[in-house]
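Our consortium's second objective concerns turning raw sequence data into structural hypotheses that experimental partners can test. To show how far this objective has progressed, the report includes one record in full. It was chosen at random from the queue rather than selected for favorable results. The single chain below, 206 residues long, was entered without modification.
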Amino acid sequence: MTRHMIDHLLDGNREFVTNEFQPHAAYYQSIAQRQAPRVLWIGCSDSRVSEDVITGSRPGTMFVHRNVANIVAFNDVNIASIIEYAMVHLKIEDVIVCGHTRCGGIAAIEDGVHENYIADWLCIASGAKVVADRLATEKKLTREQKLEVLAAENVKLQIKHLRSLAIIRNMREKGPLPRIHGWLYRVETGKVDVLIDGREGHETGT
């Protein structure tokens, strides 16, 4: 009989307890008392992009929000409360907005989508498509190249949205924090392209 995926996950947890948790029990007991993450991660819900795995991070390192196409929406109470908690209570100083290649949400922005909620959600990224359309025409990009450009432009657009939120805007008026970074993860190679380095405050590429 074929084993259910849930059984594999539970087996994985037992291996985690034996091979990771118990050998590093002091660390896990310390983070059990309180969390003190250093980074707020805003990423895509895509199952291939696990922020801890691709950055080699341990539990307790990042406070995480993921949604379809790593979008920062002005009217989303969910992401607003996460950002506020991260800034006000956890005192996080670095925010990473991370998109990725081969993203289904990005392809849907390019091709159009008819499902109601998904279509409404992806409208928030329409500004990135305007830029990608122009660049694709100017540079005669292939579809795959254009989708990469669109994924990168979407990261930049969502960072613009993030900087426009009152809590971030008010903090940045008083100083350089939080530092905001834009990354593009390449699912084909496992590498991260740094689009915006928040330590330097400028774009490093597309």
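The partners drew two points from this record. Residues 109 and 122 are 6 Å apart (CA to CA). The chain has a mean pLDDT of 95. Both points have been shared with the crystallography group to help prioritize constructs.
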